[in-house]
Structure formats: structure tokens, C-alpha cells
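Let us practice reading a record.
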Amino acid sequence: MHPRLTPDAERLGAALADRYRIERELGAGGMATVYLAHDLKHDRDVAIKVLHPDLGAVLGGERFLIEIRTTARLQHPHILPLLDSGDAGGLLYYVMPVVAGETLRTRLERERQLPIAEVVRIASEVASALDYAHRQAVIHRDIKPENILLHDGHALVADFGIALAVQTAGGQRMTQTGLSLGTPQYMSPEQAMGDRAIDARSDIYALGAVTYEMLTGEPPFTGPTAQAIVAKVMTESPVEPMTRRGTIPPHVQDAVLTALEKLPADRFAGAAEFADALTRETSAPRRRAPRTPAKSASRAPVIVLGTLAFGASALAAWALLRPATSQTSVASPVYESAIVLPDSTPMAYIGSGSLGVGTPAFAVSPDGATLVFAGQSGATTQLYVRPLDGSAISALPGTEGAYAPFFSPDGQSVGFFSGGTLKRTTAKGGATVALADLVLPYGGVWLADGRILVVAEEGDSLVAIPAGGGAPVGVGAAQRRLRGVFPEPLPGDSAVLMSTADSHLAVVSTIDGHAELLGPDGGIPADSVTEKTELFSGTNPRYVSGQILYHSLDGAVMAFPFDLRSHRARGRPVPVLSGVRLESIWGAGQLAVTRDGTLIYARGENGRLNTLVWRDDRGHVDTLKAFGRGDYGYMDLSADGLRLLIRVCTSQGTCAPQALSLREGVRVSLPEYITSLTTGALGWWDRGQKVYDHRRRRSNDSAWTTFIYPPENPEHADSLTGIQVVDVAADGGILYARGDSLYVAHAAADLRSSAARHGYQPPEPDAWGLQLRKGGDWIAYTARSKQAGEYVVFMARTQPPFEHYRASPRGGEEPVWSPAGELVYREGNRWMSVTPPSQPGAMPGVAKFLFSGPYLNVLGRSHDIAPDGRHLLIAGPKDVTTTTLTMVTNWVSRLPRSEAKR
């Protein structure tokens, strides 16, 4: 074996040792590598072309070989024949004769322009080969100088049918990614647009482009990038060849320009007709309108919506959607392309994020060169990096469980979270270092001064951590007075943008934590906001080129011009983008904009608009269609399972509780004074016949009062002064608070009597979501674990010996008692159950997995259980991962420049 052969060549040689001897590599391209080999049986030299392994893995060997065999029947003097093909240990190959000569590309690189007579002869010979193949129903799809061999001055067309075999063998994978094989300079508009039905006229266009290049020295359309070239193919007319080379005969020019027509119907019907037009000087010229550059090239450029797809292999392929004109005139055109990730490592929207809540799943380096994303890796996630001008992805070691990545200012390092730990690694795959342990972090930003700013405790805490590691230091928590998530830097790093728990936009100082909420009248100090203050409603704001982008609650991306000094909007928000994936609860948008104005985003649904569904033990799901999609949260199902209390928010950011009759599909609005619906603040009384809520009668009252009323007539309310009802069990038992202690009563009549059981206080002072089991002997709740720094579920007896147990071995929340008396809780996207101890001194049962699915974690309780055991859930977008991101170059130039406010 030749000592300098690559590992793939050695692998190929070993697999084919009984038939071929691999001599050396002849060259490599986007799809394959070519080797010189000796055919042992026939004692002749051959060329073996081997598809790159990653491409072969996408195609699948059997299907590709079936397709390529259909081209072996082509026998024509100007077609390079296919001698053999096969699968050599997973390497797909095909064998061709070795031709003494060179490719047309090599000739053009040496001479640039060829003699006109030779151009006509070569083009006519290629046209003859195409005419023959087209009559056999074979389309080449990749005519270019590299695939035209010159042997003794005559043309041989290589790789006939290979592009089609790759396209067809790719099957559903090719369809999903939109791949359409070809080379931008020679692709017909319909091939560039991704049309699946490509006919002979596409090959005629490609041959016209090759002929144009042989005449003038360059293809009809050129550009710095594939997107730029394809944009011209779609929108411009080629410069007439005679203006570049005056000796070109008019009939040759006419033939070439006819072959290059945008519409297939305006080209030659067949390759033979093209050859005839090239060679017959006396042939009547086709009628042509005077050729001028397309209007879109001299005025407002056309936005070309397209796909530049990169797989895990070195395969580069292009597919463009149909162009749409823009109403804005700018200096540079805008192109849309796709970044395709491998099926084996899709980007994870939710991944290992805290409690199964969606966070930003990717980030782009400040220079716009590198993408880092949280990819699904088995049952967990891992960070992967990918250059935006390439196709290969690399895993970053030590990043298991990663979510919410972000870059350092120099783009060399990446910060991320795993569980509750902030970590950092290098973008080139160096060591991963743990920096600090936090509680429920929701986003970080790396400042130029070396601090990493992190929102922790579900937005209640803003802390700074040295990039080298160290204890978190609070950033003016007392001054902020808001709950914000997902910080994004403003220029200068003296402040960050965040969105609040009630979906408003905030500017927060990185020095003292001073917070302002944004509205049309400027920044309003957070502690000065009143109910009448007009504020912008939305999530996940970021500053981009003088504008603030944010996501409205109905899913659109909005923008308004922003003055950095005064923190004032200089225009009203307007929609600038739709179809961006938006996550539930905090409204994280899967979107990034680079410094050079390139937009990268994930297409998807608005995760804040969801549906209510029933799920039974067999996994069958029924949607409550009567109530449609909505921004739902804080649910409480009545004991009979027929009525539901739930909070519903509007796209304007206002939220209100409603009572839903599940059988009749009727909504009942509840009193306006109930501004927030939380578990324990509002619930069902008397098996769903009435509603209770607790509140202070007056703002200066020290004691709580519980009000009980029919939902249809809230003015007819009874009151329980000094009592705060926390939960009502399915059998009517009542968990209530008086002072600092909890009590259990069997019925309303027992609330003020000695029949109430012993007072009890949970060991965890931050317990929330308390739930009483039938019989009143157990309560369950969520609290922060002192050891793990995360939310976990606890259960406790309400009577001596008041035993107290941790119910969830890992993180968990939202406990609900099942009709059978088991405790059910959510662990991210998984639902678990555990059985309480049967007697004092015993231990709870082992937590068991029940089911998982695309059921959202929203504010408050987001699931409940009916008497028949069915689970009521909130279903969100079905897709929890994606393999495609959209990239739009020069997107910032399309942002509206609203007039300044006067």
C-alpha cells in the first residue's frame, strides 16, 4: 500500500484489494475524492470516485447504488462511461476510465477564453451528449467545466446521473433540508429555487453558462458568496457577450442568451436545437427584447429567500425559494439561507434547562464567525460549535447538560449553565471550568470588565461572578425591585436589557442594579410604575444598531428606534419579523443578530400560545378545542373534574382568571380585583360550585380574609376573617393558615372550632404550591433544597409525628395528589409519582416515571388530575429540537428607521 495514502484510501484499498489497487489521489471536490487505481482483472488504469463518508451516510448505500446503475446504460461518444460501482465497507464509489487530457476547468484557468470555433465545437459535443441522455430520460443536473473532460480536443461529459442519484438516494433527508445539487454559477433559476421537477432545459441553461464562460472568460454571474451569485441568477440579466468580446458572431450570442433565459419556456426545447443555433450562422435569430440590466439591480434590490444548506459532510448544495420584492431601498441586498445541523445532534430548545423551561438554545460569536448551540446528545445535551462559513461541527468536551450558552466579548470562550452551575469553556474545545453554583439561573451575559452577569432564583436575583470563578456578588438587588430574565448587553456594558415576569421591557444598571421599565414616554424607574403607566409589553429585548428588538406576546418580533442616553423610544414599535420560535413562561426567543447585521433564528411556533389537553393512562390525548389557543397558567381543577380555574393573558400583557366549564365549553370571567392567580390564592370550594380567594380587605390590614362566592355572582360572597384558605382537597378537606401555622379542617364548619387538627409549619420557609391529600393526613409542596440549590418536592404528615420527607430524588415541582392517593409531580418534561409511607417510621416509595411529552411548564401549576385519573395538561409546540436555522445577511438594513419623536 502506498505509504502516503489517507486513512479513507487505505480503507478503500483494503476493501477492494481483490479487484483494484489504489495508486494515489487525483483530486478532491465538494462531494467526492478521486483516486487513480489499477483494475487487476482487466490490467488497466481507472479512476475511482469515492463519495465523502458523511455524504454516504446521509444517502445510504443500497439506494444510491440502485440509482447510479440506471446511468450505466448510457453509451455515447461524448459521455464518459460508468464501469463499476459499489459499497466498500461503507464507502460509496463508482469507477470510470482514466482519460488522457484535462478538464475544461483546467483549460480555462490556463487560457481564460477559447477560440470561438473551438467553443462552438465543444458546446455542440456536450449538447450532443445531453440530447442523447435526455432522450433516455436522464438529466445531468451538474454541467460545469469540472465535469467536461477534453480528450484529443474533444469533449467527454463525466458524472452523468450522479447528481440525480445523490438527490434521489437522499430521500426524505434531502427533502427536509431542501438540498438541490448544483454549482451556483451554472444553476438554472428553477434549480436554484429548489424545484423538484428539473427537466432537460435546466441542463441547457447550465451549458449556456459554460459556453458563456468559454467565450468571455467568466460565467454570466459572479459574486463573493454563493448567495450573491444565486441572487443574480434570480434577478439579473447577463451582460451581452459581444460587449466583452466583439468578435463573437451575433448568432452565437443569440444562442447563448436564449439558453440563459430565466423561464424554461423561453429557452431551447432541446439540446440539439441549441447546438443547431450555435453552428448555423444563417439560422434566423430568435426575437429578443433589447437587453438591459434588471430593474432590481439598479434600484431596490430583491430579497432572495433561499437556502444555503450545509450538512455534516463537505457537501455544499443550494436551493432557493421564489424571490419577493422589498419596499425599502438599501445599498446591499438581503439574502436568506439555511444552516442545516446533523440529524444526530439537533439543537435542543428545552434540553436540560431548569424545570424544563425553554431558554435561548444558541449564540453567535461577536464577530459573526461561529455558532454555538445546545445539541441533543442522547438523554442530555452538549454544546457544539460550527463555523458559519463551513459545515463541520465539533462537540465541546465537558459541556454535558448545557443550556443557555453565551460568548465572551472576544469570542474565544463560551459561558453556559449545567443544572444550577455556571461554567465556561473555550470555543476551540479546551478545558471546561465550573465558576459558581446558583439557584435556577435564567440567562447570563459576559461583560468586557471580566464579570459574568447572571439572573438567578428565577429572576429574583441579579449577581456578578468573575470570569475566572468566585462567589456571586449581588448587583443592587434592593434597587431593582423587579423580576427579570435573559440579560442582553447595551453598548458600553453599563446596563443590560431584560424582560420582567409580567412581560415588560427593562433596562438594568450593571453597577447598582437600578431598573427602569420602557414605554413610549421613556424609562420609568421600576419603583415609580403605577397601574396607569403605559409600558411596552414583550419579552427578550436586545439592542441592535440603534434599535431595540423584542418579541411581542403574540409572537412577532418588534422594533423601535432607541436613544441610549435618554433611554427613550424614538418611534413606535413596528413588526419586523414573524415565525420565530418563542418559548413559554419567560418568552425566550430563538434569535441572534451579529455585529455585521446578520440575523440567525429558528423558525417555529409561539410557545406562549398553547392548548389545554386531556391525557389518559394509555397516552391518548384529547384537545379541549372549545377554548382554543391561549397564554394559559395557574390551573386548578374542581374535585368533580368538570370546571377549571385558570389564568389567561392577552397579547397586550394583561392577565385575568377565568372559570371554564369543560363540559359546556363556556368561560366565566372572574372579578377584576383578582390581579394574580396563584395556587392557594384562588381555588374551588364545594366541589366546584363556588370559588374562594384570599386577600386583605384594606391595604393596611395585617390579617387575611377568605371570600367564597359563586363564579357567576362574585358579589354574593361570604367571608372568613383572619383565615387564609390555602387548598381544598378532593373530599372537601381544607388546608388553611391562621397566623404562622397551618391547620387542617374536614369541612367549612370546622374552621373555627377545636375540630381543626394541630397547627403545623413546614420546615422550609419558602414552601409554595401546597396541596392537601384526601383524608387530610398529608400535604405536599415545592421548596428549595438546601443541599442541591434547586426546587424539589416534599411531603409531610399533618399530625404527629409530623414526619417530613423529600419526595423527588432530583429536581421537581408542582405536586398534585392523584385519586388513588399517590403524589404526582413534574420533573422538567417528565411526570413522576411516589407513594407516601404507609405508617410512621417507614420511607416513601421509589419515585416512578409516568410519562413525558411536549407539555409546557408555565407559571403556577400547569397540570392537574381528574377523578377518573386523566391528566389535564398544557400542550405546547410538538418540536422540542430542530436541525435547521435560518440566516439572513444584511438583515439590519431592513429595519425601519422611524422618525424621531418631537
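A brief commentary: The chain is about 15% helix and 35% strand.
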